[in-house]
Design a protein that fits this description.
alpha+beta; 29 strands; 19% strand; disordered N terminus
């Protein structure tokens, strides 16, 4: 039992400064991990360069930590409501309350990254009692002045300045040291505290706040045989107040790395292997020291001279020793050349500890053996050294004094090779706050994926998004989920419903103040001359009717229409609607001396006037776009295919019915643009489930571009869905929409197009193609149905260009989840609860 060991070195804490029994002063910071996941190799080399600058700037004895801890459910909910006025968004408040039980059932975790570095020394005149581990009498720090503390802070700031701002270091609150100690004592057990994910006020802490505990190496107290001690490499940690829930922990450290080196990227990120081990908690710590290149070169010359002397002594000896010495000399030469060529290099001595903790010895040892098997595939041998478990355990405590085990299990590599380990990285995707739309499947911790669509617009960022996937993969479900969240938070949306079953109409029935419009059997008018402000009505009308009538703006009939629809022409002829325009054209056609262009224009208008009541029926009320939800049903309107829109000769031969459909589609988009892209203080979302009708026509592409470029300025966004992003997501839809989702695509060509649109380099990661086609919401079992727990799996690229894998959960409220299912009227009543398998 390790009662006599000074494992908690802290005398007192001042903010993020730690004063230890040995006189060492350390500064500890939260580190923001860099996005990694599925990004391209070029991006990963940038991450490596940031770690290279980090390691070359750290003082000797610095400690890097990656701590796995549970997320506080209330912290998750507070991020969900950040920036939302719940008094004005009662529906969203109900959704957040309903999300509480679901988040708690999932039990999401996170990894907190910390950097603790020495910034000086102090001699506060501590008493012998204060130097005892867990002493009750606090040490006297009266000798430490404010000037001393400012000096330590200046030293820390100097180090951080050399590192750079990529990792965004933030001083930890004093309470974190207490939390970290309690986490170590209960690692993996039932009493493991949740993580302090938010930075609190800087305060002061004394040594009295740290609990006492007994560290039983080998778990000797579990065995009734006292004559034969246990040799199991495990520590049983028992706290006096919680003896009934001990923590069983094993300290692992790499015994050897691959002899031929570790390739970057893909082969050197060995800390990624520890994620997703189930019911155990796995932390890691790396203690580092560096030596400059000049000292390394000098030591290499000394070592080479010694090798030469040994080779001379064994010159006449017949053995393998001569070959061994020659091999060492060759390796030393290559090592020396590396430092000569790279002037900014340094040599890193590092000791790595991987701490595994569980609630039972069996669970811990099973996880240890699983980790060893995983690492063996990467030719990294892990060991759990007997007799050094407590020493390695103490290495992860900030401010811990140097112990022999730190040197016994250290490895030495050049700094650029160490940078390839990239320890401060994350697979996190999504935003820092906003509604929870799913969970992260790539990190192994099931962290909530926040999608702050309205919060992004408030912070001058693009909130637009696009979705791709095959039929039934979840595209429409995600569109309706985000539309529901926008509605709950006080925004409005307009969606075009192409489905025969009316899935969006079914969804709108659950929303107050929803308007449903059928373009084939209209109850409102989309007449642009009545819909838009008189200052712009003429231009918007020309944009719609000229393509519909197959007219050029400079042709005879086209020029005549353009002349009539100028502000002067509208006022002169009192044109207030398309019916008025038609009547004026008929009158001018019959007026002697007027050119034939009006006869041509009249005949063209006559072909559509009786076919499109939504444009030419003056008795219909004008569409209003101030409703909370507007659904335009276009299932009975003929629309051209993507090929017909992109192939000139096919487009020129489009039948009138498809031209009408295209014109109406564009007109709806233009109406949404005029309604949402103005400062009315309300968030507006335009949803297009058939993306090529927006992106492949001139007017539709302009609408998409305007929402993508200017939506952030006017609290607006566009959401698009398509089966093939290579043809449908071009221009603004490809370059300016940051948030991208890819659901299951079993067709190989479409799967390739989807992943390339996402930003994945398939030459670097060809395995992702199989994952998307075969392992993303796979239809299995009887009837080839997707199991409930596998639905909604997808790839995501967020606004920071981070690429990862996740699962869409859907609304937490059962009634809202039922409303957004894609099968209205079916007997299926299964509600998405977001439970993980």
């Amino acid at each position: 039992m390790a009662f006599d060991r000074d494992l908690q070195p802290t005398v007192a804490i001042r903010g993020n400064l730690q004063f230890t029994h040995s006189g060492l002063v350390t500064a500890t910071y939260f580190i923001t991990p860099l996005g990694y996941g599925l990004r391209k190799a070029s991006d990963k080399f940038d991450v490596k360069a940031a770690h290279h600058a980090l390691i070359n700037s750290l003082p000797n004895g610095s400690l890097l930590l990656g701590i796995q801890a549970g997320l506080n459910t209330l912290d998750v909910l507070s991020k969900m409501v950040e920036g939302v006025d719940l008094d004005e968004s009662e529906s969203y408040a109900i959704e957040v309350v309903a999300a509480y039980e679901r988040v708690r059932a999932i039990g999401p975790q996170t990894r907190i990254f910390l950097l603790s570095m020495p910034v000086g020394s102090a001699n506060p005149g501590m008493s012998g009692l204060a130097r005892m581990w867990r002493g009750a009498t606090p040490a006297d720090l009266s000798g430490v002045t404010r000037a001393d503390i400012e000096g330590y802070e200046e030293k820390a700031a100097e180090i951080l300045s050399r590192i750079g701002g990529e990792f965004d270091p933030v001083p930890v609150p004093a309470a974190l040291f207490q939390w970290l100690w309690e986490h170590y004592l209960s690692r993996g057990a039932a009493g493991d505290p949740v993580a302090p994910t938010r930075v609190g006020a800087l305060d002061d802490v004394t040594a009295a706040v740290f609990r006492s505990a007994a560290l039983d190496e080998g778990a000797q107290t579990d065995s009734g045989r006292r004559l034969r001690p246990s040799f199991v490499p495990v520590i049983k940690v028992v706290q006096p107040d919680f003896e009934f829930r001990p923590s069983y922990q094993a300290m692992l450290t790499p015994h050897s790395f691959p002899y031929a080196g570790m390739t970057f990227p893909g082969g050197s990120e060995f800390l990624n292997v520890i994620e997703g081990l189930g019911d155990v908690t796995v932390d890691w710590g790396i203690r580092v020291s560096t030596r400059p290149a000049e000292q390394v070169l000098k030591n290499n010359e000394t070592n080479l001279r010694r090798l030469g002397e040994q080779m001379d002594q064994r010159d006449q000896e017949v053995s393998f020793a001569q070959n061994t010495l020659m091999s060492k000399a060759q390796m030393l030469g290559e090592y020396n050349t590396h430092f000569e060529v790279n002037g900014g290099e340094s040599e890193v001595s590092f000791t790595t500890v991987i701490a595994v903790g569980g609630s039972s010895r069996e669970a811990t040892m099973d996880a240890v053996n699983l980790l060893k098997r995983r690492y063996r595939r990467f030719q990294v041998e892990l060991t759990a050294p007997l007799g050094a478990q407590v020493d390695l355990w103490s290495m992860m405590v900030p401010g811990s004094p140097h112990r022999r085990a730190f040197d016994d299990f250290a490895h030495i590599v050049p700094s650029d090779m160490w940078a390839g380990f990239v320890p401060f990285t994350s697979s996190q995707i999504g935003d820092d706050s906003g509604p929870v739309i799913g969970v992260n499947l790539m990190s192994g911790h099931f962290e909530p994926i926040h999608f702050g669509i309205m919060e992004a617009a408030l912070h001058d960022l693009s909130a637009s998004f696009a979705v791709t996937g095959e039929l039934g993969s979840g595209k429409s479900y995600l569109l309706k989920l985000i539309a529901a969240l926008v509605n709950d938070m006080g925004g409005q949306f307009l969606a075009i419903d192409r489905s025969q079953v009316g899935e969006w109409e079914h969804f709108a029935s659950a929303i107050d103040d929803a308007v449903v419009i059928d373009l084939a059997n209209p109850t409102v008018s989309l007449d642009p001359l009545r819909l838009f402000d008189p200052r712009i009505a003429g231009e918007r009308t020309l944009d719609s009717i000229l393509p519909l009538l197959d007219l050029s703006p400079t042709s005879g009939a086209g020029a005549a229409a353009s002349s009539l629809l100028t502000p002067r022409g509208i006022a002169e002829h009192r044109i207030h609607s398309l019916v008025d325009l038609f009547q004026v054209v008929l009158r001018l056609r019959d007026t002697p001396g007027i050119g034939d262009e009006y006869a041509d224009l009249a005949s063209r208008l006559g072909t559509v006037a009786d076919r499109v009541p939504v444009l030419f029926n003056p008795k219909l009320a004008t569409l209003r776009l101030d409703a909370a939800a507007t659904v335009i049903r276009s299932h009975q309107v003929a629309l051209p295919s993507a090929e017909e829109l992109t192939t000139p000769h096919l487009y020129n031969r489009l039948p009138l019915t498809k031209r009408l459909g295209t014109a109406l589609y564009e007109l709806v988009g233009v109406a949404a643009r005029e309604a949402f892209l103005r400062d009315n203080g309300r968030f507006g979302l335009l949803i297009g489930d058939e993306a090529h009708h927006f992106t492949q026509t001139q007017v539709g592409a302009a609408v998409t571009s305007d929402f993508s470029r200017d939506g952030r300025k006017h609290l607006a966004a566009i959401g698009l869905a398509s089966h093939d992003p290579a043809t449908d997501f071009q221009g603004a839809a490809h370059n300016l929409i940051p948030n991208r989702f890819v659901f299951r695509q079993r067709d190989e060509v479409l799967a390739r197009n989807s992943l390339e649109w996402l930003g994945v380099d398939l030459e670097e990661a060809p395995y992702l193609l199989q994952i998307l086609r075969e392992e993303t919401s796979p239809p299995i079992g009887p009837g080839r149905q997707v199991p409930e727990e596998r639905r909604g799996e997808m790839f995501m690229r967020d606004a920071l260009n981070r690429i990862g894998r996740g699962k869409i959960l859907g609304p937490a409220r059962p009634e809202r989840a039922a409303a957004i299912t894609s099968t209205p009227g079916s007997a299926r009543t299964a509600i998405v609860q977001g439970r993980m398998d």
